[in-house]
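User: I'm putting together notes for a lab meeting next week and I want to include a structural view of one of the chains we've been expressing. I don't have a solved structure, so I'd like a prediction I can at least talk through. The sequence is below, exactly as it appears in our construct file.
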Amino acid sequence: MSRSGTDPQQRQQASEADAAAATFRANDHQHIRYNPLQDEWVLVSAHRMKRPWQGQVEPQLLKTVPRHDPLNPLCPGAIRANGEVNPQYDSTFLFDNDFPALQPDAPSPGLETQHWGSALPVAQPSPTSRLSFLPSPPSKVMCFHPWSDVTLPLMSVPEIRAVVDAWASVTEELGAQYPWVQIFENKGAMMGCSNPHPHCQVWASSFLPDIAQREERSQQAYKSQHGEPLLMEYSHQELLRKERLVLTSEHWLVLVPFWATWPYQTLLLPRRHVRRLPELTPAERDDLASIMKKLLTKYDNLFETSFPYSMGWHGAPTGSEAGANWDHWQLHAHYYPPLLRSATVRKFMVGYEMLAQAQRDLTPEQAAERLRALPEVHYRLGQKDRETATIA
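Assistant: Thanks for the context. Below is the predicted structure for the 392-residue chain, given as structure tokens.
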């Protein structure tokens, strides 16, 4: 991936690529696109949006969620499943997950678990093997706000900034020992969220998960070959082309990646080379809170619903190897929303997607154009509040 515009040949190649992509968009031709970050392909079949839909329709979301429910284990003052009482928190609140996926008392896996047949050779575990565990792998829950009836786009920028700071702090704390710290948010029942209270999870592990390993290999190979981080080069190209950009600010950009799989998938990137969340400056954290609010407001405005998604941060590995050269890594966040046609019709990853490769039903450029055109004031605000927010 060479930066377009640096010489006539590259400019010509970029122009030809844009013309080809425009032809695909105009004619709804199916085509495939390569994801260099995760080394995989996606089939784009935009003409499928024209097919009639008589499949599953999701139920409408609850109109109201109680602001405080003493029986909700995430609310301030509530009793959790383990009998602990939450403090009367008024900002973010981080606690150990009562139902962790990575259990501290799990036995160390034996070699016999590493293969499915005795005739197969058994590889010895490496430091980044998924079967290599440090003691007591932490799994935490982070509440964003004391109220259950708000989500990130309805929070103020300073409140979101507190979330950003908490993300950076827990990454630094757990990253002092563990090589991978995965922050992720599942928003909405459609994405398997079991509690409407605004929150995310943080899992630390002594191994690099599969997707992290793919991103590690791809970014390292690209940096070795081209001398620049893959996602830095990619963001330069997207800033030149502009057609997949959704939002830009002084320190950040949001785009629908060329290789997006989910209908309105986005990638959040810092403009500066940053490897991990704790490295963000105060100005970058302020700007991140602002652009997150704008993006998530656009998501909600798209179908005028509390937009479901799964999101997560990926940064350079941490732990004992944190001091190694990880300059090929660029910090980024993935947003994967499932809604396709409306607030009640989602994209199903089944059939061809499960048995062959990922497939999407509209082009990334179409998705970016639609998101870009949406207002940055939340649809739930009244007209008076809308005018005030616009003036501000």
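A couple of points you could mention at the meeting. Residues 2-6, 10-16, 108-134 have pLDDT under 50 and may be disordered. The chain has eight helices and 14 strands.

User: Perfect, that's what I needed.
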